[in-house]
Amino acid sequence: MYQWYKRPYNSPFIGLFLYGPCYLKLLSNFEHYMQQKLQFVSTSEYPDRAVSYPIAKLDDIEVHFTHYKTEAEVKTKWERRTARMLEETNIDNYYFKICDRERVSKEHLLEFHKLPYKNKISFGINEIDTLKAENHIKVHESHKNNKKFVPNGKKMFKLTFMYFNMNKWFLN
Fold first, then answer.
1. pLDDT (tens digit per residue) in 118-158
2. What DSSP string runs through 32-85?
3. Tens digit of each residue's pLDDT (9 = 90 or more) over 56-93
4. Are strands 61-64 and 55-58 parallel, antiparallel or unpaired?
5. Structure-derived torsion over alpha carbons of residues 151, 170, 61, 104, reported in degrees to the nearest 10
6. Edge to edge, what strands does the sheet with 61-64 contain?
């Protein structure tokens, strides 16, 4: 998205992911977690995959830096982008997204939409009747046709234009 709009990365959450429980914990106490220093760890509490990238904790949540090679690269980019993000003090100018990947259940999606943020959207392969269509986008193409969750971030970004008017959302 930042590349598409030719904008600097004003978020540290690029090239990484958090498992659903950690992401919701982070969002439920966003100010606290964004003030924490990264503490690198050698193993994950989630044994879902072989890890060949840096992992760090912010207090008690895990951040998986899948598109980074070294802890030094992670630290430099995380600190620069976090500082840039925190220059914006009005949380109503932040945008939050969640997908039904990485241990994100229907319950996590519902919890996400209860958070007190103005700009939030979710994507998943299933509709959620209790959520408005403009808040939760049903994606018809799933990851590797296994029908369990949406595709990865890069592919999902390309698909987004089929389901969602990002320009309208940002200018709203």
1. 999 988 888 888 888 778 888 877 555 566 777 676 666 66
2. HHHTSPPEEESS-S-TTS---S-EEEETTEEEE-TT-S-HHHHHHHHHHHHHHH
3. 999 999 999 999 999 999 999 999 999 999 999 999 99
4. antiparallel
5. -40
6. 39-41, 55-58, 61-64
Q: 59: which 2 tokens?
A: 């207090």
87 within 8 A of 40, measured Cβ to Cβ: no
d(CA 78, CA 100): 24
pTM: 0.85
Mean pLDDT value across residues 33-39: 97
Gap between the Cα atoms of 79 and 85, Å rounded: 10
Burial degree of 75 (CB within 10 A; 0-12, 13-18, 19+): middle
Q: Is residue 18 a contact partner of residue 26, using CB atoms and an 8 Å limit?
A: yes
> What is the rounded radius of gyration, in angstroms, for the C-alpha atoms of the chain?
16
